[in-house]
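Ticket #4471: structure output looks truncated?

Reporter: J.K.
Steps to reproduce: submitted the chain below (180 residues) through the standard prediction queue, then opened the result file.
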Amino acid sequence: MDFVVLDFETTGLRNEDQIIEIGYVWIQNGEIKAERSSLINPGGPISSRITQITGIDTEMVADAPEMHEVIEGFAKFLRGKMVVAHNASFDVRFLNNALRRANLDGVYEYVCTMRMFRGYKRELGIETPGAKLSDLTSYFGLHNDRAHRALEDAQVTGKAFMDMCAVLPWENWVTQKKRG
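Returned output as attached by the reporter:
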């Protein structure tokens, strides 16, 4: 199975907010095949609050492509691959919003590593608190010096996902959403 571990940075948490960075790690047969990131111009200013969290400011995305310029190619790349993300409902919601605006089919099956990590800890009797990305990286001894940057977050999520797959079958953690 091919997996795309993805992460987005956005202008906020609401449906009308925009993606400002895409990062992904493509995993095929347990091997990392590719890693990519791209800044995305959201078509408006990025708030100082978001810049403080991500380090991404309006000037950095000024010459970046807008989502409508990349979403069709990204959708083609995702075809036939299982989407994996930490707190996946957030990233999949933003992905599906972008796909919907482009009149493209959404993503309705995905694996959430936050849910999977909770199950992993239950399965192994691990009593550490939390399931945030920082909890996951800490548990697996992964370093993320650039948290809240899409590629780095996708990289550590991908490594932890592969570690968890050595213990838990990923198929048991697929979330299926209704179409529409």
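Triage note (M.O.): checked the attachment and the full token line is present. The mean pLDDT is 95.
Status: closed, working as intended.
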